[in-house]
Design goal:
293 residues, alpha/beta, Rossmann fold, 2 domains, five-stranded parallel beta sheet, 12 helices, 7 strands, MerR-type_HTH_dom, DNA-binding, transcription, repressor, MerR family transcriptional regulator
Length: 293
């Protein structure tokens, strides 16, 4: 059993520590455990309960009403909310809860239901990418560890790969050639995998080179393959290389081949007004480009 401090609970659920203390005193919600040195802590079960309470509270249920519910009633209401597949806020909250609990069955169910109901593209745009941005914030403030982030990311990547290889492999006469890669020290493939899915769906030619590709290898590949476009994603904020420096290295490697670039670290890049570099701000704009709209 993991022990969570009140600050851990605050970070993971969004409920302020002061509010937790008030709820404990006013509604007798929890009786926190005490360590040998009399430090307050909470259990895994307590965390699950807090997550469920936060979900109900975020969706309009007053804490005075929640306090009168049994654990079974709270869980039942949360499951009822989960069935509202068209409310992206609820789905994002549910994914966060499942990730924090490392609950594979629950996480898979939420992802599968969203994809079945509204399709992969809309799920990515309205649920998964906003969820991943939330994961990034939780990572930065230290409320989750690498296992949580890896668990969520790999599950989503598996869904994208599965959907990609269900698409018949064919290209149309007007198709363009794309090279997809991530630069050195960039490990986050989710955005790149989704770009591959979109390109394959729209019958474009796609050479997928994956993560952490050396610039020299990129240069040699572009010279040999002669692509019409290069596509990359800048996500990592931990790289020692600044985004503008990475962009300059990429442009030097690919010459005058047009570059599509997206990701959190692509925002605010300085060296993009050269007629060859295009910042992709959202899914829809990239779909419009590759579909010729």
């Amino acid at each position: 059993m993991k022990r969570f401090s009140i600050s851990d609970i605050e970070s993971l659920t969004g409920i302020k520590a002061h509010t937790i203390r008030v709820w404990e005193q006013r509604y007798n919600f929890f009786t926190p455990k005490r360590s040998e040195t009399n430090i307050r802590y909470y259990s895994d079960d307590d965390l699950c309960t807090f997550l469920n309470i936060a979900t109900l509270n975020d969706n309009g249920y007053k804490i005075s009403k929640i306090s009168k519910m049994s654990s079974e009633e709270i869980i039942s209401l949360v499951k009822e909310l989960q069935s509202n597949h068209h409310d992206s806020h609820i789905q994002i909250q549910m994914l966060s809860n499942a990730m924090v609990k490392l609950n594979e069955t629950e996480f898979e169910e939420i992802i599968n239901t969203s994809i079945n109901d509204i399709g992969l593209e809309k799920s990515m745009q309205e649920v998964i990418f906003p969820f991943m941005r939330k994961v990034g914030v939780m990572w930065q403030i230290g409320s989750i560890n690498p296992a949580h982030e890896h668990f969520a990311t790999h599950k989503i990547e598996q869904k994208i790969i599965e959907a990609t290889y269900k698409i018949p492999f064919k290209t149309k006469p007007s198709s363009k050639k794309y090279v997809l890669f991530l630069p050195p020290n960039e490990q986050h493939e989710l955005g790149l995998l989704f770009a591959q899915y979109l390109l394959r769906k729209h019958e474009q030619q796609c050479l997928y080179l994956g993560q952490n590709l050396p610039y020299q290898t990129l240069s040699e590949t572009v010279e040999y393959y002669q692509p019409d476009f290069v596509f990359t994603v800048l996500t990592s904020s931990s790289s020692e290389d600044k985004p503008d420096f990475v962009l300059e290295r990429i442009k030097k490697a690919i010459g005058n081949v047009p570059l599509f670039i997206t990701g959190g670290q692509a925002v605010g890049l300085q060296s993009t007004e050269d007629g060859f570099t295009y910042i992709i701000k959202d899914i829809l704009s990239f779909i419009n480009i590759i579909s010729g709209k």
